[in-house]
Specification:
alpha/beta, ten-stranded mixed β-sheet, two-stranded antiparallel sheet
Length: 519
């Protein structure tokens, strides 16, 4: 916002968005490295269904997501690890592990692929149905291993209900912070496990324990968003057990997660709104400056939230609630993640600017519900408080952004009452490695912009950074990327990939009506 509106940012906006602000990211026997998996365990009917991968016994299961069609057939198991890896004989916790055998029978290579989900707070087994198609070539000759990171999914989840307040436009920023601290402290006291041991460092020790248990000398790690931090930390700590690394939506080790969300979003919005300005139909319909329209809309709603009737996107129920500047910020940020959604943003903001708030409210509620279901906020706090919170600083320049600069105050206050672990002294040092590494970035990514990938690849002599034109956060499923992913993991050579197929990617035209874009 301009200087005369800097103090009109939504007071509770950072709290309403907190679940999304941290980054919103997981010895074989040669070919057929899991040949023992085809052997039944025991003699009764139940045991006959079990399959061994190394020394872990798996049962048939299916993976599904409310946001993906169909189900994925898999093998699932429980695997115990120490709560504190420094005390291997101490208390144990249970991890959920899923195994997707190679689709070409008998062709599995010795190095499985470990997929590392984002967040922090997402579970690999819950994220997989959304990303499975990107691995169609990889899965032909390699097993996929999914480990719900400790604190997420079904791996001793650190569940915190109602820890992130809803901004109804009536409370001050400090009141919202105070309320969230009370909720976080209540959650911490109710936990049956020590939340100090749910950091990235603990998680990579879990991954290596699973690797050893399935008998894989080396693994391929594919991380998305926050999962790229996990991947870099794993490969840096266990290079002898890593064959290749894929980083999609790169978060450099040096980055304080969440510290640049505000400026990154505004930069991405500038690029996205530029597309509208360059499209005559969009410019004529919505004006020459969508960003200024957004600024004025948020200022008005901050000054006077509006009661709106809208339809619940999940139930279809007709509801009435106040729409606030925080709802606008939520929707703006989430729409900016992908080019198809971003193409709708000028239209939805224009509708709201004209007093038609129902579409905005319904979509904001839909995204908020999805975030609360996908992200485990307790685990997110364990990661952020140990690894980033003490490095946060308030940047006055962020006050003039869509998200504002409240996050350091919110996180700092919450971390004072959350059990906080420790990070290694070299945790934030750059990832330097001679391993083959493929880095992927979307040109218009609002969270992990291409400059992050450029920063990381400087230290990787066998790395290569591909920037996908017109794309947002998450590149694995886009265009020919699945083919390139398969080729990279097969050859372990990013330099020789023929990536010219990505040149066909373009920009999604902005919508000028809910019927679509102009032909």
């Amino acid at each position: 916002m301009h200087s005369n509106t800097k103090d009109q940012r939504p007071p509770g906006m950072a709290l309403a968005l907190a679940a999304a602000l941290a980054a919103l990211a997981l010895s074989g026997c040669g070919r057929g490295g899991a040949t023992s998996a085809d052997q039944a365990v025991g003699g009764d009917a139940d045991a006959a269904a079990k399959r061994l991968y190394g020394r872990i016994a798996f049962d048939p299961c299916t993976l599904s997501s409310a946001y993906a069609a169909g189900t994925i057939a898999a093998q699932c198991a429980r695997f115990e690890v120490p709560l504190n890896h420094a005390e291997p004989k101490g208390r144990k916790i249970s991890l959920r592990v899923a195994w997707l055998p190679a689709t070409e029978e008998g062709a599995a290579e010795a190095d499985p692929v470990f997929f590392l989900a984002g967040g922090p707070g997402q579970a690999a087994t819950e994220s997989w149905p959304l990303i499975d198609g990107a691995f169609r070539d990889v899965r032909k000759r390699r097993n996929i291993v999914l480990v719900d990171q400790r604190g997420t999914g079904q791996s001793t989840p650190l569940t915190c209900r109602d820890a992130v307040g809803e901004d109804d436009g009536t409370q001050s920023e400090q009141t919202m912070i105070d309320n969230s601290v009370v909720a976080v402290e209540r959650c911490a006291k109710a936990l049956s496990v020590d939340a100090r041991y749910f950091t990235t460092t603990d998680a990579i020790a879990d991954l290596d324990a699973v690797r050893a248990a399935i008998g894989a000398a080396r693994i391929d790690v594919v991380g998305v968003s926050y999962g790229t931090r996990v991947a870099q930390q794993f490969a840096g700590r266990y290079p002898q057990h890593t064959r290749t690394v894929v980083l999609d939506g790169v978060a450099p080790n040096e980055l304080v997660l969440g510290s640049e969300h505000a400026r990154n979003l505004d930069a991405a919005l500038a690029g996205q709104f530029k597309l509208c300005q360059q499209t005559p139909a969009c410019r004529d319909r919505f004006g020459a400056d969508p960003r200024e329209q957004l600024r004025q809309l948020m200022a008005r709603l901050q000054a006077a939230p509006v009661e709106v009737d809208y339809r619940d996107p999940s139930t279809g129920e007709q509801l009435r609630e106040r729409v606030t500047a925080g709802h606008v910020a939520m929707l703006t940020r989430m729409f900016s993640y992908g080019p198809q959604a971003a193409a709708l943003l000028p239209l939805v903001l224009n509708e709201a600017d004209r007093g038609r708030y129902a579409p905005l409210m319904s979509l904001s509620k839909m995204f908020g519900k999805q975030l609360s279901e996908e992200l485990n906020y307790g685990m997110q706090l364990s990661v952020s408080c140990a690894e980033d919170a003490d490095l946060f600083v308030v940047d006055p320049a962020d006050a003039d952004t869509v998200l504002g600069n409240a996050m350091p105050k919110v996180l700092g206050a919450q971390c004072k009452v959350w059990p906080t672990g420790q990070r290694p002294k070299n945790f934030h040092e750059p990832f330097k490695s001679s391993l083959p590494v493929l880095l992927l970035s979307g040109e218009l990514d609002p969270v992990t912009p291409p400059r992050y990938g450029d920063q990381v690849v400087k230290h990787l002599p066998n790395g290569r950074h591909l920037i996908l034109r017109g794309q947002g956060h998450g590149a694995l499923r886009v265009g020919c990327t699945p083919k390139l992913l398969g080729q990279f993991i097969e050859t372990a050579d990013a330099k020789k990939l023929d990536a010219r197929c990505l040149d066909t990617l373009g920009y999604v035209p902005p919508f000028v009506s809910f019927n679509g874009w102009e032909p």
